[in-house]
Task: inverse folding
């Protein structure tokens, strides 16, 4: 049973900020005006998916895909550093929950595969003779890998930090 007022998202438009120099405004906005977009790597992955979905006959389509791939690559490198680093999340997880070793090893192996997939997409996108469908296929494969990796990481964190209070029915 819900008590009290029900919170609804605000429809008040926030001030739009001009995109950085050299980066065109996103031609495919998502959601309501002023609605926040995902930040960080999730937002960059989302932007890559939108860029590849545009008709490939658009001028500079391939360049836009490459432009959107760059922050995904940089964000994923940062993700690997934060999780695998000497004081990273995986070390902390294993310190508190050694039973998660298999899951951590799986995620670490996925990091190498995802980095290879990002580099493969970049190489294909840089070749003008590559058919747009091939590039879309490779980007789609990368996006699915990233989504699966994110789900597995979330599941691992849930398993590490969920609390069994017991006695509940």
Result:
């Amino acid at each position: 049973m819900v008590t009290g007022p029900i919170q609804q998202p605000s429809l008040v438009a926030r001030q739009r900020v001009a995109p950085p120099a050299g980066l065109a405004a996103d031609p495919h906005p998502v959601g309501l005006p002023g609605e926040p977009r995902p930040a960080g790597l999730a937002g960059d992955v989302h932007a890559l998916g939108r860029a590849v979905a545009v008709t490939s006959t658009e001028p500079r389509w391939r360049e836009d895909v490459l432009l959107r791939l760059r922050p995904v690559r940089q964000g994923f490198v940062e993700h690997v550093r934060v999780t695998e680093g000497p004081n990273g999340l995986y070390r902390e997880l294993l310190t508190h929950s050694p039973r998660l070793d298999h899951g951590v090893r799986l995620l670490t192996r996925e990091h190498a595969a995802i980095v290879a997939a990002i580099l493969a997409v970049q190489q294909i996108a840089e070749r003008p003779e590559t058919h747009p469908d091939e590039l879309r296929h490779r980007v789609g494969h990368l996006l699915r890998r990233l989504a699966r990796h994110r789900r597995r990481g979330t599941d691992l964190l849930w398993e590490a930090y969920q609390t069994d209070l017991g006695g509940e029915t």
Q: What stands out?
A: The CA atoms of residues 103 and 156 lie 7 Å apart. Helices lie at 40-53, 61-84, 89-96, 101-126, 132-161. The chain has five helices and no strands.
